[in-house]
Task: inverse folding
DNA sequence: TTAATCACAGACAATTAGACTCTTTGATTA
DNA sequence: TAATCAAAGAGTCTAATTGTCTGTGATTAA
């Protein structure tokens, strides 16, 4: 029961891109070096964000990644969902539908998600 | 990023014990059969709960487990912590101390924990 | 008192998820 | 046209999860 490191890398990459005022793309090497991981691995993580339309990838020499239009409204929850998926954190196996334990667990999970929805990367700049 | 199955088994075992009105101990076989897992495995999970003082183990013939005195005040969070540990869900690796991302993550986690603290097994009876 | 029942502990095994690396491919542009 | 880049696939290594099997010692019902 932990957030994955990939989620950490994704959030920090987004923060880096947001802190970069200019619109010139930031290469995966730069982002990877700062986080001390391999470019190929980070590339995979960023591809997930790109598929969700949160960032744009620019191919070619001096290419890299830029934030997509409307990035200011991307929440923490959006980024987390892009990396970890959207399925709920708790599953009841034996009890049938309407499990009272699951109700409590889901309700608690929603409280966390509500909070994660409130914050955007833009709030940290 | 999922709660473990062990947590599910622990919560359901607690619910079963609480729903058993009599004070006679419930054997691990009974609890395991209902949840369709092996008694030895469930025994390991229940031992964790016993070490935290949430349940009592009764050895000998017709032994088993009973809820400990004061079980009504045991929260969902207590049970989850007993199984999953108490460390936080998110860790920042590269950024130094005072990472703004971590602040948001921890804050959100606290919201979930506050909710899990509100509910007890007794609330489900 | 003896045999059954139980908790408990430790060793072991299988499966899955996490955290990567390596290599190739294909697009873009300096 | 050669360098630079993203993207995709296969493969690897490790750790955690999810168990099972076996043995030991305590307790008690018969």
Result:
């Amino acid at each position: 029961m932990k957030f994955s490191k990939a989620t950490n890398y994704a959030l920090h990459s987004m923060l880096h891109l947001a802190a970069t005022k200019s619109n010139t793309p930031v290469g995966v090497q730069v982002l990877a070096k700062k986080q001390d991981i391999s470019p190929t691995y980070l590339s995979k993580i960023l591809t997930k964000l790109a598929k969700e339309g949160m960032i744009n990838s620019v191919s070619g020499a001096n290419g890299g990644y830029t934030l997509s239009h409307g990035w200011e409204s991307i929440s923490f929850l959006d980024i987390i969902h892009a990396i970890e998926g959207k399925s709920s954190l708790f599953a009841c196996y034996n009890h049938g539908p309407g499990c009272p334990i699951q109700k409590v667990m889901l309700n608690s999970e929603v409280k966390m998600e509500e909070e994660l929805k409130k914050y955007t990367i833009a709030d940290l700049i």
Notes: Chain B is about 50% helix and 5% strand. The helical segments of chain B are 5-19, 28-35, 39-51, 76-84, 100-118. Strands of chain B lie at 55-58, 64-67.
